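Structure tokens please, single chain.
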Amino acid sequence: MIRVSSDLSGFSRGTTGNPTASVIGAPVSGMILDHTHWIGVSSWRWLLILEGIPAVLAGILTYFFLPDRRDEAKFLIPEEKDWLSAVLRREKDEKQARHQITIGQVLAHGRVWHLIAIYFPLLR
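Here you go.
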């Protein structure tokens, strides 16, 4: 998985999923909407139920089968685990070196107040 995905740029990986989902999902959705009126439940509700079940099952399976830490990942070879640990450690160090900011600096930043002004009216 890592070797195959590293050959593609982030843009090409992101742009191939949406058309593929549309080509497969649109006809399936159309069939569900046209032919599913079971036990007095509207077809649009069956669409949400039937298309939501695989996502819920995938989430449950992911919780049980995906490793918690990179050390537990059986699909990574030791060199990849070491490389990943080094990269994450380096990124953490760089982030801490660049982003030492106090709460006072946050409250003095104009962009923070701009975002607050945008978000505040949305609260009710």
